[in-house]
Amino acid sequence: MSGPPPKGWQAIQDEVLRRIHARDWPPGHVIPGEVDLAREFGCARATVNRALRALAEAGLLERRRKAGTRVALHPVSRATVEIPVIRREIEDRGHAYGYSLLERSLAPPPAGPRATLGPGPALHLTALHSADGAPYVVEDRWISLSTVPAAHDAPFDRVSANEWLLAYAPFTHGDIAFSAEAASDSQAELLSTAPGTPVFAITRVTWDHTRAITVVRLIYAPGYSIHSVIGGMSADPRAAS
């Protein structure tokens, strides 16, 4: 009889976080090694490593070579903004999710993204996410192929870059800006609204240490509201400081 299926890294992260909060593993406690945890959770050691690395980057664990991994004595408090999976965000609001890839090309990025990604060709994607068939957000994204070469052949006609990158391109930190804008003619057409209508925009850059992964502009349909985690500790590597 086979055992339980292997746990994903996010499930392992959640369980480690639960043990820390429940004081099963109190501050300063040296937790089991990756090999032991992989055996307990029935998964690859690399999966455990990813979960523990995310918690260390969130300031909840301290990892030292030859000394093991211990619960931080003084966890770092960070103000964070979560990067959601748009599909889940729509489904969590009780709507049916839809996705359409509108454009995919390889080209030198324009001035703004080029300042971050560099002058070489990058992957440009434009997509529309919908909720119950109504436009929800336009995703205009540039991806650095030098940082994420696997993106070149990723199936973005079936899965959004938002979701694919969060699954396959872990990041260390990000920069994010929010603004209210007037919808351009092209944005208004995609969002089924009138040109000049106020819309909410997010511009975000995510990084793998010193290498930029992606620059994205998200233009939301009128009526969008945002929820974020501010001023607390987050163990979620989808959160950008």
Describe the structure.
The protein is an alpha+beta fold. The protein has two domains: 9-71, Winged helix-like DNA-binding domain superfamily/Winged helix DNA-binding domain (Arc Repressor Mutant, subunit A); 81-240, Chorismate lyase, CATH 3.40.1410.10. Helix content is 26%, strand content 31%. The protein has seven helices and ten strands. It has helices at residues 9-21, 34-41, 45-57, 86-92, 111-117, 161-168, 185-191; strands spanning 61-64, 68-71, 81-82, 97-107, 122-131, 134-143, 173-182, 198-208, 211-220, 239-240. The strands form three sheets. Strands 4-5-6-9-8-7 form a six-stranded antiparallel β-sheet. The chain has a two-stranded antiparallel ribbon with strand order 1-2. It has a two-stranded antiparallel sheet with strand order 3-10. Strand 8 (198-208) and strand 9 (211-220) form a beta hairpin. Helix 2 crosses helix 3. The longest helix is centred in the N-terminal third of the chain and has 13 residues, at 9-21. It comes from Roseovarius litoreus. InterPro entries: Bact_HTH_transcr_reg, Chorismate_lyase_/UTRA_dom_sf, Tscrpt_reg_HTH_GntR, UTRA, WH-like_DNA-bd_sf, WH_DNA-bd_sf. Keywords: DNA-binding, Transcription, Transcription regulation. Residues 6-74 form the HTH gntR-type domain. It holds the Pfam family UTRA.
* Residues in helices, as a percent range: 25-40%
**N-to-C CA distance:** 45 Å
Question: What is the CATH topology assignment of the largest domain?
Answer: Chorismate lyase
Count of distinct strands: 10
Per CATH, the superfamily of the largest domain is Chorismate lyase-like
- Assembly of the depicted chains: single chain
Mean pLDDT equals 86
Which second-level CATH architecture of the largest domain applies?
3-Layer(aba) Sandwich
CATH class type of the largest domain: Alpha Beta
Count of alpha/pi helices: 7
Overall 3D shape: elongated
**Total individual domains:** 2
Question: Could you describe the largest sheet, including whether it forms a barrel?
Answer: 6 strands, antiparallel
Instruction: Give start-end ranges of low-pLDDT stretches.
Output: 229-241
> How much is the radius of gyration in Å?
20 Å
Strand content: 25-35%
Order of helices and strands: HHHEEEHEHEEHEHEEE
Strand order of the largest sheet: 4-5-6-9-8-7
Structural class: alpha+beta
InterPro entries: Bact_HTH_transcr_reg, Chorismate_lyase_/UTRA_dom_sf, Tscrpt_reg_HTH_GntR, UTRA, WH-like_DNA-bd_sf, WH_DNA-bd_sf
GO molecular function: DNA binding; DNA-binding transcription factor activity
Protein name: Transcriptional regulator, GntR family
Pfam families: GntR, UTRA
